[in-house]
Structures are given as C-alpha cells and as structure tokens.
Amino acid sequence: MLAAVVGGNLQGIEAVYLSQKAGVDVRLIDKNRSAPASGLCDQFIQFEVTSENHPGSIFEGVDLVIPALENMDALMALEHWTSVLEIPFAFDPAAYGISSSKSKSNRLFEEQHVPIPRPWPYCGFPVLAKPDTGSGSHGVKVFHEHTALEVYKKTALESIVLQEFVQGPFYSIEVLGAPGQYASLQVTDLHMDQHHDCKRVLAPTDLPDSLVSEFKRTACTLAHALALNGLMDVEAILHENELKVLEIDARLPSQTPTAVYWSTGLNMIQLLGDLFLNGIYNTPTESINKNGVIYEHICVRPHILEVAGERVMSGATSLGIHTDFFGADEAISNYKPDREQWVATLIFRDSDRKSVQKKRDHTITDIMRHLNIETYLDTVPLENGRGQTP
Questions:
Q1: Cβ atoms within 10 A of the Cβ of 120, count?
Q2: Do 327 and 346 contact (CB within 8 A), yes or no?
Q3: Are 351 and 237 in the same domain?
Q4: Residue 82's pLDDT is what?
Q5: CA nearest to 124, candidates 141, 139, 140, 144
Q6: pLDDT tens digit sequence for 105-152
Q7: Phi, psi (5° rounding) for residue 200?
Q8: Is the per-residue pLDDT at 385 higher than 80?
Q9: Which of 91, 131, 298, 325 has the maximal Cβ count within 10 Å?
Q10: Is residue 285 part of a domain?
Q11: How many structural domains comprise the chain?
C-alpha cells in the first residue's frame, strides 16, 4: 500500500512515522524541500497543493491521501483533486470546518451540554485568550487585569476567543468511526511547558476509571453531533474534579497517536486506512494491554538540556529514527555526536508508569553525563500564567 501524506511538519512526522509502523509506504508532499518529515519518508515530492496547481502525476499509484496540515485552502484543494482523481481522502471537511474554529466548537459544546471553561465576561481573572482558528499553543495569552485585556482586544489582528483560565491536569482522547459507529481510543495525559505547548504525553492515564468512562462518552457524543467520518481528538482539563473540554480537532493529531501506539499497539493510521479504504472499523477492545509510555521532546544546546513543547521539532531538519537512543526505546532526532545543538522526540516504554519513569530519568541523566550538560530545564505553566522550572 502507498499513502500520500501531504504536509511535512509536526502532523506530517506523526503520519509518516505511524504509516511506516503499519508497513505502509509513504510519499510525502510538501512545498518546503527541507520539511522536518522529509528525511523519514520513502519518497519526497516538493509541491504546493492549490486548486489552480494541477498535481499531475504526484498521486500516481497512491491508495490513500492523508492530510497533515491545517491550511484550509490546501485542504479544500486536496478534497477537490482527490475527488477528481478518485483517490480516498482520509479527512472529513465538514467536521473539520467546525473543529478548526474555537467559537464554532464552543457552540457545539454548549448545544451538547458539555462542560467548558466559562466565557468572558461571565468569568473573573485570569482570562485566557486564544486565536479562533489554529491548534496547539500558538497565540495563547493569559491576562490578569482589565486594562491589558482591553488593549489586546483592540489590537488583536485575528478573531479571538476569551474564557476563564482554569488550572488542572490536561488529558486527550481520540475517537474514530463513521455515522452510527464510533469508538473512543486510549486516554493520555498531557504535560505543558511555560508556553502552554505540549511537551510530554504519558500513558496509560492517571484519571480514575469513572472519569475515563465519562471522557469516552463525551468524545463519542461530540463525534455523533458532528456526524464525524474519520478521526477526531478531544482535549480537556480536570478542574475541581470536573473534566472541562478545551478543544476538538477533526484530523490526525500529533504526539498522542504515537503514545497510544506504543502503549496499546493500536495504530491510528492503520485504523484510518481500514475505514476509508474498506469501510471497516474494528472497535478496539478494553482488554488490550496498556504499557507505560512516556513521549517527550527535548532541545539540547551547549551545557543545557531543556524539555520543551513540540514547537522545538517544528522546522527541524535531518530528522531520523534512532533505536536505543541513550536508553530510550526510540527517538526521532537530528542528533549527531559532533552537533552542539539538536532536538529529539524521546519514546520510552515499560510495564507501567512507575517503571517507565525510571527508564526515562536514567536516559536524561545519561545524556547529560555523556555530553557534559550542567543545566536541566523543564518549565510548567503557573497559576499566574508564567512558567517556572520545578
């Protein structure tokens, strides 16, 4: 089987990585010749997908097209060309049109009576501001008083969503299927850096079983409401013992699918292929063994090792897959022994969370000792919105 992955940045890394784990050949397409995932695929074609730019033969022999980007114009062009060429497109444009807008998503949550942080001005400070479109931490700001918030509202160059800034641990879940049949996958725990960017994913979750069941029901409820055909992830925060949904994204996410794969063996690319190529979705069973997994990003520079959000992987070149990387089971990295500055996504697996944490700590210590690194940084968001190193 040959899959065309369109987009070679963070989602592209995820799609290429999991495709190859599923035994699928990958043709990566991106307008940037040095896209981070370009060194991980079987074939690379430099091409910008637009409605005017005919793809010619770039999709020749392709069995499935997997989008790994968030540019709406490019996504609509892909929908057009895959329809013309009669190639299955692993994407739901209608669902994505809602999930890609925070304001539209919030209306959906309210209609489905899903708990969310209170909107401004019906909440107090601190207030979280985030762009209406886009995912991740890009453009997220926290305000603590009225004057600064009003200045920002007047000067913001894009539509923004304002809601209460709530504290608590973050969780994520994917749901997959088609109208009439949905199943939620594994809940994962998310750790954020000072910029509210996810730096670490852990599995299995530390959520109590009752909240896991509630989160799974919520995810399937939202999938039904969207009439989802494909894959969607849901992110929530646990605040005062209540899960409050923060956002949804009806597309292949980055980070969590790989953590789920290493913990359960379930490969979301393989599941997407079964759904879009064969109309088959085999519901995962709850009896699947769940290994302890830690998936995290590091940036190394002279004398410093920093655990940081996935933004450090964006734009990285010369990425490759390394096995037994300083004790990590696997790493996606541009590390070379003579390179002073490099990045890596480290993947650890063991029998449970406690054992995998020891394995991870040993690897970090080994890297620092081997490279004579003196400073370790691992920032977190604080109540006041400012990060610190624990």
A1: 19
A2: no
A3: no
A4: 96
A5: 144
A6: 999 999 999 999 999 999 999 999 988 987 666 678 899 999 999 998
A7: -155, 140
A8: no
A9: 298
A10: no
A11: 4
